[in-house]
């Protein structure tokens, strides 16, 4: 490790940045992370003064760092945003109940309003009940589809213009790999965009899309942020797990690999014509068929 921080040349370095390999002190590390996210927000014109932003708050490290950074940058650079925490309670005992406690503590710490919507309330089914009925096959599909719609519904209740999520650079690079391996050209063309879901009525924004997961963990650890770090008790997404392992191996050899994969995805010119957009005849949500995926899955559960 260097004798002095490679940025300020004054204090002893405390960390070797996973993204750049620079040996830097803690204050310079914080500054790099904060300025990088500020740059991403400014250069992509992500927000506008007066907007209400629903922050998808799961209680995990990424969304906790997202809350911390947006709260800090909103004050420091006077973005003029109304920040609102939005948590979805999927109804998973021993997982989401604990992480929601972290969200509630952060609501108090940052003095931000919090809205919690639950699968039980919205659909009459918690994930615990769903797994009780269908077992551990396909349960992640239910959870993903319901969460997407629950976030939309919660954001509408709040009166938010947009939802921001804590997806980081590793998440996006993994998604590029997965879509490529699956030959899913529609998703491949879309998945690196900082704004997705504009074709629906509640777009998703990803201000952390260039932050490395390792740096998010370090930032949260150094600043002693309050988050919950256990994996979901139900089976993880095996396909994503494979892409994740591959990316981690690649990163050991070449730390830039994560960013390089994102940039490759950004440069791809693939057919991204969306399927025709319809309105679900039952719930009014966005759909590419007569009934949206959430309603179809609910029908299966209620059979
Ligand atoms: N139950 C939830 N309630 C609200 N937002 C959620 C929820 N689950 C996920 N999100 C949003 O989607 C993002 C990506 O979720 P994912 O399930 O990939 O978790 P993750 O990468 O472990 O993120 P985190 O560390 O924030 O939990 C989160 O950062 C958060 O913004």
TrEMBL record:
<dbReference type="InterPro" id="IPR000541">
    <property type="entry name" value="Ncs6/Tuc1/Ctu1"/>
</dbReference>
<comment type="similarity">
    <text>Belongs to the TtcA family. CTU1/NCS6/ATPBD3 subfamily.</text>
</comment>
<feature type="binding site">
    <location>
        <position position="88"/>
    </location>
    <ligand>
        <name>ATP</name>
    </ligand>
</feature>
<keyword id="KW-0808">Transferase</keyword>
<dbReference type="Pfam" id="PF01171">
    <property type="entry name" value="ATP_bind_3"/>
</dbReference>
<dbReference type="GO" id="GO:0002143">
    <property type="term" value="P:tRNA wobble position uridine thiolation"/>
</dbReference>
<dbReference type="InterPro" id="IPR014729">
    <property type="entry name" value="Rossmann-like_a/b/a_fold"/>
</dbReference>
<feature type="binding site">
    <location>
        <begin position="56"/>
        <end position="58"/>
    </location>
    <ligand>
        <name>ATP</name>
    </ligand>
</feature>
<feature type="binding site">
    <location>
        <position position="62"/>
    </location>
    <ligand>
        <name>ATP</name>
    </ligand>
</feature>
<feature type="binding site">
    <location>
        <position position="171"/>
    </location>
    <ligand>
        <name>ATP</name>
    </ligand>
</feature>
<protein>
    <recommendedName>
        <fullName>Cytoplasmic tRNA 2-thiolation protein 1</fullName>
        <ecNumber>2.7.7.-</ecNumber>
    </recommendedName>
</protein>
<keyword id="KW-0547">Nucleotide-binding</keyword>
<comment type="function">
    <text>Plays a central role in 2-thiolation of mcm(5)S(2)U at tRNA wobble positions of tRNA(Lys), tRNA(Glu) and tRNA(Gln). Directly binds tRNAs and probably acts by catalyzing adenylation of tRNAs, an intermediate required for 2-thiolation. It is unclear whether it acts as a sulfurtransferase that transfers sulfur from thiocarboxylated URM1 onto the uridine of tRNAs at wobble position.</text>
</comment>
<dbReference type="InterPro" id="IPR020554">
    <property type="entry name" value="UPF0021_CS"/>
</dbReference>
<keyword id="KW-0694">RNA-binding</keyword>
<dbReference type="InterPro" id="IPR035107">
    <property type="entry name" value="tRNA_thiolation_TtcA_Ctu1"/>
</dbReference>
<dbReference type="GO" id="GO:0032447">
    <property type="term" value="P:protein urmylation"/>
</dbReference>
<comment type="pathway">
    <text>tRNA modification; 5-methoxycarbonylmethyl-2-thiouridine-tRNA biosynthesis.</text>
</comment>
<dbReference type="Pfam" id="PF16503">
    <property type="entry name" value="zn-ribbon_14"/>
</dbReference>
<keyword id="KW-0963">Cytoplasm</keyword>
<feature type="domain" description="Cytoplasmic tRNA 2-thiolation protein 1 C-terminal">
    <location>
        <begin position="279"/>
        <end position="302"/>
    </location>
</feature>
<feature type="domain" description="tRNA(Ile)-lysidine/2-thiocytidine synthase N-terminal">
    <location>
        <begin position="53"/>
        <end position="240"/>
    </location>
</feature>
<dbReference type="GO" id="GO:0005739">
    <property type="term" value="C:mitochondrion"/>
</dbReference>
<dbReference type="GO" id="GO:0002144">
    <property type="term" value="C:cytosolic tRNA wobble base thiouridylase complex"/>
</dbReference>
<feature type="binding site">
    <location>
        <position position="166"/>
    </location>
    <ligand>
        <name>ATP</name>
    </ligand>
</feature>
<dbReference type="GO" id="GO:0000049">
    <property type="term" value="F:tRNA binding"/>
</dbReference>
<keyword id="KW-0067">ATP-binding</keyword>
<keyword id="KW-0820">tRNA-binding</keyword>
<dbReference type="GO" id="GO:0005524">
    <property type="term" value="F:ATP binding"/>
</dbReference>
<dbReference type="InterPro" id="IPR032442">
    <property type="entry name" value="CTU1_C"/>
</dbReference>
<dbReference type="InterPro" id="IPR011063">
    <property type="entry name" value="TilS/TtcA_N"/>
</dbReference>
<dbReference type="GO" id="GO:0016779">
    <property type="term" value="F:nucleotidyltransferase activity"/>
</dbReference>
<dbReference type="InterPro" id="IPR056369">
    <property type="entry name" value="CTU1-like_ATP-bd"/>
</dbReference>
<keyword id="KW-0819">tRNA processing</keyword>
């Amino acid at each position: 490790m260097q004798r002095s921080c490679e940025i300020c040349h004054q204090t002893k370095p405390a960390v070797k940045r996973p993204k750049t390999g620079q040996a830097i002190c803690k204050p310079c590390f914080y500054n790099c992370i904060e300025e990088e996210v500020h740059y991403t927000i400014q250069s992509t014109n992500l927000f506008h003064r007066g907007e209400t932003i629903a922050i998808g708050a799961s209680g995990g490290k990424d969304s906790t760092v997202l809350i911390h950074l947006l709260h800090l940058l909103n004050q420091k650079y006077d973005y003029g945003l109304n920040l609102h925490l939005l948590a979805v309670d999927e109804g998973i005992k021993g997982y989401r109940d604990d992480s929601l406690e972290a969200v509630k503590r952060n609501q108090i710490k940052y003095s931000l309003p919090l809205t919690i919507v639950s699968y039980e309330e919205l659909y009459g089914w918690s994930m615990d009940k769903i797994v009780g009925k269908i077992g551990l096959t396909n349960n992640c599909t239910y959870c993903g589809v319901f969460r997407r719609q629950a976030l939309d519904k919660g954001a509408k209740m709040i009166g938010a213009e947009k939802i921001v999520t804590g997806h980081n650079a590793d998440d996006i690079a993994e998604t590029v790999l997965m879509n490529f391996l699956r030959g899913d050209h529609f998703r491949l063309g879309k998945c690196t965009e900082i704004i997705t879901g504009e074709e629906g009525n509640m777009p998703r924004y990803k201000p952390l899309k260039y932050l490395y997961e390792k740096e998010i963990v370090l930032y949260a650890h150094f600043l002693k942020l309050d988050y919950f770090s256990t994996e979901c008790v139900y089976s993880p997404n095996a396909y994503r797990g494979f892409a994740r392992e591959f990316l981690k191996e690649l990163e050991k050899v070449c730390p830039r690999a994560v960013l390089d994969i994102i940039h490759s995805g950004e440069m791809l010119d693939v057919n991204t014509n969306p399927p025709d957009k319809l309105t679900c005849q039952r719930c009014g949500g966005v759909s590419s068929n007569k009934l949206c995926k959430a309603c179809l899955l609910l029908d299966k559960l209620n059979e």
